[in-house]
Amino acid sequence: MTQFPSFVEGLPLTRRALEFATERHEGQRREADDAAFILHPLEVAQILRSGGYADEIVAAGVLHDSLEDTDATPQDLEQRFGPEVARLVCSVSEPDPEGSYAERKARLRRSVAGGDRGALVVYAADKVAKARELRMTLACDWSAAASAGTAEKLDHYWASLELLEQLLGADPLASQLRFELEALATLPPGMPAQAR
Questions:
Q1: Mean local confidence (pLDDT), 98-117
Q2: Around 86, how many Cα atoms within 13 Å sit in the side-chain half-sphere?
Q3: HSE-up (13 A, CA, CB side) for residue 153
Q4: Is the model's pLDDT at 141 over the cut of 80?
Q5: Active site residue 68
Q6: How far apart are CA 74 and CA 89, in angstroms?
Q7: Fewer CB atoms near the end CB (10 Å): N or C, the chain?
């Protein structure tokens, strides 16, 4: 039996979601540090749990990448976790995989904007975790800072922050995302000594 972090204790739906996501994301690796990919959904779920959100929202945080990165379907999620979790995950998943990164992410932001507060906080927690991963990437590979992909990600994260502040106001997750992005802009990770 897989052992999960203690924050999932008392969250039966989240625990089931974590078992499902762990199986579906098996073999996938995180780009930033080559850790098992499941660490990213776990981080999103922990951010939500720390914010005191309900089991359904934390479970959606665990599952938020399952439609984009695995063979899971909205029907799978609804059957296993109920219509609320499936709806939240659909709200934060790219509606169409076609087009450039900027086009896909603009569609995603429009989709999230049409969601409710639960979808917005799952999206916000994801962006906080992604901004932290970007800092880790830059700390490990300073040359990534000059890549077009990094600039596109930052543009998307800033546009996401604008959306979240507009719709959530002074929510702690929006504030945390602002901090992460401002820290990247004003206090970027140092260039590794071997790259100087």
A1: 96
A2: 12
A3: 22
A4: no
A5: yes
A6: 8
A7: N
Cα(59)–Cα(92) distance, rounded to whole angstroms?
13
Mean pLDDT of 103-129: 97
Helix axes 83-91, 117-140, angle to 10 degrees: 50
Which residues contact residue 124 at a Cβ distance below 8 angstroms, ignoring those fewer than 6 apart? 160, 164, 168, 171, 173, 174, 176, 177
Q: Which of 19, 68, 141, 171 is catalytic?
A: 68
Of how many residues is the chain composed?
A: 196
Average pLDDT score over residue span 65-70: 95
Please identify which of the residues 19, 69, 84, 165 carries the catalytic annotation. 69
pLDDT at 45 over 50: yes
The answer to whether 137 and 154 are in contact (CB under 8 A) is no
Tokens (6 digits) for 105: 């992410």
